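Lab notebook: predicted structure, single chain.

Context: the supervisor wants predicted structures on file for every construct in the current expression panel, including those that have not yet been purified. This is the next one on the list. No modifications to the sequence; it matches the entry in the shared construct table.
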Amino acid sequence: MAEVIEGGFTVPMPRMVRVRQIFPREENSVDVLAAMKAMFSGPGFKRLAPGSRIAVAVGSRGIVDVDKIVGGCIRGLIGLGFDPFIVPAMGSHGGATAEGQIQILKGHGITPETMGVPIRSSMEVDKIGELEDGLPVYMDRQALRSDGLIVINRIKPHTGFRGDYESGLLKMLTIGLGKHLGATTYHNYGLDAYSRALPRLGGIVMNATPFIGGIAVTENSYHQIVDLRFVRKDELLDREKQLLLRAKKLMPRIMFDPVNVLIVNDFGKEISGPGMDPNITGRPVSPYVEIDDAPAIDKIAVLNLTPASEGNAVGIGAADVTTKRFVDSMDLGSTYANSIASTFLNSAKIPVYMNNDFEAIQVALKTCTGVRHPHSRIIWIKDTLHLDEIYVSEIFLPEVQNNPNLVRLGDPEPMRFDGNGNLTYS
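Prediction complete. Output recorded below exactly as produced.
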């Protein structure tokens, strides 16, 4: 790789200030263990015979306390006399392999040992129907052959399309449990049409499978669970639509606009499907979503791929520059499988990559036009999930002072790099 910094010039970097962003907050977060215990004390499962085999579908997202939610669901089902097991419901994630999807669950603390039940991971599906235009509908074979099916997922805005139903229970029922074949088939149908097709696909799945209902999780801007409920099959279409509206109001954001360089410390599948949420960055890889309330960002520098991603770096194509460390940690097979299934090949394109964080940030700064360094407008975030405390360059201080939803937490300090030229995040 060419040494574009060594022997050349460097631009001066501004000092950075730690700032708290204040978002709308629900008064109380949910006590997960208490909520799960109450969820399985009602009469909702009376129609199922004792000993019924219940498939609990779990996805790849890094939902808060997902291991506690899944564990609580398993314990509740066992307490009712059922025989539960876990099935991964994550489409083509994990390199589109059964073993890869087991590894993703393990990264969330979900294993046969921790849950006390087997994980039945397979990419085998059966066709269970088709839409009126002939689009086939597929379902995970293990889930289909169970006596009852429950899905667990977070309700939130999708990163690739807009509609009444986006990322949630319906999507898990169709794409997640459709496995690689289903995910590829539905994405080829077109995300522009998918938002309209989703309730029809979900209707077929709900009627042709032993689906009972779903556990819907809603988080606030602080990555806390504020709503955790069991949604019955007969109420899912109405309830999920309402929960999505609430989730959209609780989304965090970057309160500074415009931005010369956004530094994203951590990028990963447990953070967002495309590694960093385009609802935050304004950089979707899908042409079927418009994001109006994100700041105008000139350059995005991504530094690290999270271990929980298992090498899947799909979405990195939305960045402008990254590090050699990031590229070395990529699993191209997993990344390409996810990108091809989504039909958005640009999501797997590798940006310009540099030896370390210092060089990556320098390249991002040098390619911003009309900036008088060191007076650049830089935002540095841990990831797109955690936006309550961020670092901003000194030039933003007047905006911080004049905005009641922004609180200065320290004095301006230079960005600190270790001996390898990498940022130290605190």
